Amino acid sequence: MADIMGGDSNRKGSRRKKYVPGLACIKFSPDDYWSPDEAQRLYEGSRHPSLDQDTIRFEDCIQGMERMLPNTVDLVVADPPFGIDFSGKEAVYNRNQDLVVDSYQEVDADYGEFTERWMALLHKVMKPQATAYVFSGWNHLEDVLRGARLGGFTTINHIIWKYQFGVFTKKKFVTSHYHVLLLAKDPNKYYFNKMEHYPLDVWDIKRKYKAGEAKNGTTLPLEVVKRCIVFSSKPGDLVFDPFMGMGTTAVAAKGIWRHFFGFEKNENLKHLIDERITKITPGEEYASLEERIREIRDEARKKYPLAYKVFLKESGGRIDAES
Ligand SMILES: C[S@@+](CC[C@H](N)C(=O)[O-])C[C@H]1O[C@@H](n2cnc3c(N)ncnc32)[C@H](O)[C@@H]1O
Question: What is the CA(39)–ligand 1 centre distance, in A?
């Protein structure tokens, strides 16, 4: 008979261990993991023949996706234009206006109609097991949710990415979050590699800003994009981004042994994207299982100091992957 806590009160002799909050997080190890050598082999041996892998096309993504074959990409990271005039706000993020790349290409068509079109095409180019992480500010969330529904997607998660600052306001709260929808083409088939024991749908990740660096005011942090890629693809997979901006998806993918492909409407960004992509060597950011487990345990140590003490006692002081 189950007790009110869901346990089995009739089980004789079962000595249940005391529940220690956070202990399972510290002990966690992912199911799917590839050593750096295996990841490199998968990357070098994988070909995505229907397109020029590891390239970015400077054209409209709607026209581009119309020409792409169906079922070709393993994962999508899409950060579409906001549909608002961002030019005034870039001056706030970048005090030296000369460093702001003339980059932001606005949507001419009605935003809802534009969203509906690109999301339907996105569905076509995704493989059945593929997922899409679609970024949206709150102002156009309604259009993106509608585009996802009409495009035939199933929403798996509605993630909030919380960052540390927003544009100064006088008469309302400062916006310091973004919505990230995790969408599946097939809710029964989609790939998800659980990389943490308890991965929350609120991501607290800082936006970085280096003074004196040329940038597009809308560039995503690499950490956010890498998190999407690590949880939802395998080494050698093809990550597609229809709105490359400064090429963050390409840089993140290449750094962890994934291939990339994408579109960007604004050719002015080409030299900056090329510079970023050539700076990174394939796989240089790929973490071994040992490193990943150390990272997990280090985070857990800060969050759950008591559980960490219990863990050290149980493992005889060892914190490596073998313990
Ligand atoms: C929000 S930004 C993407 C930023 C990017 N995630 C990064 O980290 O750099 C959106 C980008 O989409 C581009 N864009 C707008 N409409 C487009 C279209 N129809 N096809 C391709 N790119 C487009 C804009 O020029 C802009 O660079």
Answer: 29
What confidence tens digit (pLDDT) does each residue in 280-315 have?
999 999 999 899 888 888 888 898 999 999 999 988
On whether both 125 and 244 belong to a single domain, the answer is yes
Atom of ligand 1 minimally distant from the CA of 245: 27
Residue 109 has pLDDT above 80, yes or no: no
Has residue 83 got a pLDDT over 70? Answer: no
Q: Which domain, by its residues, includes 322?
A: 18-35+288-323
Q: Please tell me whether residues 85 and 212 are part of one structural domain.
A: yes
Express each pLDDT in 142-177 by its tens digit: 999 999 999 999 999 999 999 988 889 999 999 999
**CB-based contact 176:161 (threshold 8 Å):** no
Q: Do 213 and 73 fall into the same domain?
A: yes
C-beta 90 within 6 A of ligand 1? no
Distance of CA 299 to the CA centre of its chain: 19
Q: Is residue 129 part of a domain?
A: yes
Determine contact, residues 117/64, Cβ cutoff 8 Å. no
Query: What is the number of other CB atoms lying within 10 angstroms of the CB of residue 66?
Result: 12
State the total domains in the chain. Answer: 2
pLDDT of residue 7: 45
Predicted pLDDT at 5? 43
Kindly write down the DSSP assignment for every residue of 185-208, as one continuous string.
S-TTT------SSS--SEEE-PPP
Whether residues 302 and 176 share a domain: the answer is no
Q: How far is the CA of 273 from the centre of ligand 1 (A)?
A: 12
Number of CB atoms found within 10 A of residue 146's CB: 15
Which own/partner pairs from 207-213 qualify as long-range (CB within 8 Å, at least 24 positions apart)?
207/163, 207/164, 207/165, 209/93, 212/96, 212/99, 213/99
* CA distance linking residue 172 with residue 1, whole number of Å: 53
Q: What is the pTM of this model?
A: 0.87
